Amino acid sequence: MRKKCSKPDCPAPKGLCIEQLSNDFPKCQNWLGTLGDQSVEKQKRVNIKSQTLPWTGEPFQPSDIEIVSQRSVPLIIGMVGSAEAGKTSYLGMLYTLLFNGFIFEDWSFAGSCTLSGWETLAQYLKIKPDGNVEFAPTTPANPDYYSLYHLALKRGDLFRDVLFADSSGEVFNLWAEDVKDQNAENARWIYEKSNAFIFMVDSMALIERSGAAKNEIMQMAEQVAANLKGRPVVVVWAKADVIDKIRENIKIALSEDLSQVFGDSQIFEVSNFSKTDPDILCHKNNLAVTEYLLTQLNEPKVIKLVPQISSVDLFLNYRGVYGNE
Ligand SMILES: Nc1nc2c(ncn2[C@@H]2O[C@H](COP(=O)(O)OP(=O)(O)OP(=O)(O)O)[C@@H](O)[C@H]2O)c(=O)[nH]1
Ligand SMILES: [Mg+2]
Known about the structure:
Layout: E1 4-5, E2 31-32, H1 40-51, H2 66-69, E3 75-80, H3 87-99, E4 108-109, H4 115-124, E5 147-155, E6 158-166, H5 169-177, H6 185-193, E7 196-202, H7 203-226, E8 233-238, H8 248-262, E9 267-269, H9 280-298, H10 314-317
Parallel strand pairs: 3-6, 3-7, 7-8, 8-9
Antiparallel strand pairs: 1-2, 4-5, 5-6
Bound molecules: guanosine-5'-triphosphate and magnesium ion.
Guanosine-5'-triphosphate (GTP) binds at residues 81, 83-89, 135-136, 138-139, 168-169, 204, 239, 241-242, 271-273.
């Protein structure tokens, strides 16, 4: 007899269990452990099969990207920011919102190959019985630590596979000081491979270390801007529940410096703490950050076809009555 889930219409993707939110389906109470004679050989075969599944539900490593790249070229969104800036919590909140029925305006959730990873992040944000939130541990700072979280999204007939590349802020600080630092390999990879960036500004650090935190943020911003090649960046003021406690002059100066470096990039304030229900910083802006980048990345690109000729010859320099416009 075949093993199967007893839960009718279980919406879990193939190979995953909705109750366990992982590929640990044999632990689910709805799992029918009816292997007939339960022979060791058969059990072994089942195990071998599950080991040969190409994905486990855990965050992807760079070598796993090919699993989703067969359908379309996946979009990589790089999470950039200093240590403790709020990168991992942002991802935990994004999944928490989607899981709880909040939606993007234009995109709908169409699956994920890293559900276990997302769920682990979201668990940290759950309010504990004592009313506190634990938050995810600091992301490991090994230069070879990668964690890519996958979302498949759909807009009309268009499918997009999106990978959010999280890494340690400590590593990004090393990279910001020296892009060739040998301990910043994953930050380098994220910068090189990402199609767009979420640049996190830590409001709490600006309250606690004002000028020093501002310098650190600007050093990283300048390094990100150095070789963007048109890739979109969204500036996100994280922990915006405390943003009003930042010294006004620091906040204004940093906003001006960031807009000089990133031009007209969109700016959002987000928080993982909701003061009202619904709360703009938490329920709306966290989704809006990703949606903004998705819109940017899926807009048809305008290509300038007019060659830039510069010559002393007036005839060659002539661009018509309206110039290049
Ligand atoms: N006030 C406030 N604090 C927050 C919020 N989100 C996160 N924090 C705090 O910020 C800390 C760091 O958040 P993380 O998301 O782990 O930061 P990170 O950028 O992933 O840090 P690294 O992994 O070290 O790079 C958390 O442990 C919380 O204490 C928020 O919305 N408001
Ligand atoms: Mg982290």
